[in-house]
Prior knowledge:
GO terms for molecular function: serine-type endopeptidase activity. By secondary structure, this protein is of the alpha/beta class.
Amino acid sequence: MLQLMLWGLMLPSLLSTFTPSTSSGQLLPPRSRIGDEVGAHAAVRPPIYMVQVRKPAHLLSAGPEEVEEWHRSFLPSPTLDSGEPRMVISYKTVMSGFAARLTAEQVKAMETMEGFVRAQLDEELIPQTTYSPDFLGLRPDVWDAANRGKGAIIGVIDSGIDYNHMSFAGNEILCPPPEGWKGSCYFERRPACNDKILGATYLRMFSPTDNGGHGSHVAGIAAGLPYPLTSIRADEFGTASGAAPDAYLSIYRASSTCELLWSIERAIEDGVHIISISMSTPVRQLSPGLYANVIAKGALEAVRRGILVVCAACNGGPSPGTVCNDAPWIMTVGASTMGRALNYVLRLGNGQEIQGESVSVEKMSKKGLVFPGANDEEDARLCRNLEAAVNVAGKVVMCYTGDITSAKKAEVVKDAGGVAMILTNTQRRGSIVAEVPGDVGIPVVAVNYADGELLINYARNPEAIVDLRPEAISFDAGPFPAVPSFSGRGPSRDNGGILKPDILGPGVNILSAAAQGEFVLKSGTSMATPHLSGIAAILKLYLSKETGIGWNPAIVRSAIMTTAVSSNNEDDPITDETGDRASLFAIGAGHVHPAAAMDPGLVYDIPVVDYVRYLCGLGYGDEEMFAMVDRTFNCNSPRLRLDPEQLNYPSIMVTLDVRPTSKSKSKTISRTLMSVVSKPSKYTAELSLRTQRRMAVRVSPETLQFSGLSDNRSFDVVFSLCGQIPHEDFDVEGHLRWVSDDKKHTVSSPFLVRVLIKQASQDRLPA
Ligand SMILES: *[C@@H]1O[C@H](CO)[C@@H](O)[C@H](O)[C@H]1NC(C)=O
């Protein structure tokens, strides 16, 4: 159903958005390319630091060469002993500073130099795929590289791309490129990109070609060309296609933070409309804050230039405080299921049937069933090692998910003589099967926690037997959407109380491109993110054409969030891996509903200066402000400080601190809505509260009248505690919906009120 919604988005009107102009990208190699991948002396090379510096007055309008020259003046020497240049990159637009190979002592010495602000170690980026690649083994022998026309340009910053994959097989010649496009293509064996992959570049690698497959997978989800699959289960899938099959891709291969920042700089210069990042910086127990986060920093510059930045919410769930990429100028995407099940039935000797999922189509009957971990032996429970376990030869073997990859488990089972594996969810993973291994030599059936426990119980019987058989894939296996355990949860640790994630997109068992021409299933917020990037690309172009409004990232995100769906296919609230109602900290505004997002009626706009005021509102000092915005910004004037709760965000999060020291029992939040339809319109507020007790919510005014396009109206929401105040902290969740008189538009915002009562409540986040 969700896929149908995506298909419904392919508007022919989008195809003519660009008129070709100027000549194709130049073929010069990227600058500062250093052969890291063959660095034989890696051990003795000093690490890379990103160094931020404050330009002196005489350099404020200097050209990039002059600035780079000045950057070099900070280095103790131009090269390392090996002759390798110290300078990795001198940033031009995205940061006032550079990245260079330095020792800690050299950085220390730099601290006293005029203009030095701060230095930060380059760190490896973490791809947000939960489970390692598992190949479906589909190698289609026919391909039809249909060119679906032109659309938006999506910049994908990831591990690169397999340009030979049929998902990216556009028309070879693209001359001239779309208007505004200034990027380049640096594949080693192909001089030019095509009209699917407009550009591809990298900083320190040898090529933008994908090794691991992560980058190809996410790029394929965002804008892969439709491609009919041909193997047996794939027949049931039908066609693999990106969310925006007509969009262009611009690929930036990055594996560390200094490369990522460079990639954002390039993407801005190249002229992309959307930046999609399915990665994160390492997640720390004690995060220093947004200002030290390279993705947040680069994204702010991109957003300032009108580029929407879409990022993964990370896979650290289900614990609270595990959401990442949570700056308020980023669209933060959590993962959900989409109702597709690769059905596979297990029939027990006692007649009971259990529904699992598998890519296998093999049938088996009357096989012995065994759980080697019955004695709680860790190795055996996880099928890491079955040497000391019961004899599993000829049997169907049960293993818990986790620790090593399911492919490795299957190998262990096979080596021990097992004929099939049942991969059972741990309690943490609960009711959602998000790891369906591919072709790993023996049939593997994944089951949820409850069914797994039932099977384990049955397997205590030494005579336990099971029949295995595939069943047709279903596309409405409810309830869906539902949030899998891994999807990152709020509250944010860094953003001062903005509700995150913003939105959910399909991120469980997603079929897309992999290296070497394969299609594979992967799960993760990595996979949810490019769905939203593709949808946003289409929306941005469509909406700016349909309305006369200058569309910006905040407006596109607002359209997506205020039209999102917070109920599932059974008309119940969206659930999580426990099977219970999911918190707003898991779902944000809910699941994306592309068709509704095309006609939002009203939007919450955020001028870029408000993000800077918001940073002041976080209490940032001079250095932190400089770290974020690359200039001196004095937050002292109260006018320049915006309380994070008052940022004109499409969701509302409020903290009511009623501890004896503060005692604010009520809070007023202001928001402004802008009309994006030309006709006059009238809206009425509707409130729904999950727990009515203890909290009174009032909206004023209760109706808003808009005279036409870009008319703004403000309103207040007052949250007040009422009745007996309990002894424990609690959260109140609800929705504020502005409904148009003609019932055509519902502009919905989730709200979450945290009530702090206990003294030590501040420590609610996991340390
Ligand atoms: C409404 O507010 C936006 C800023 O969010 C502004 O760009 C627009 O011009 C305003 N509309 C009018 C009619 O003033």
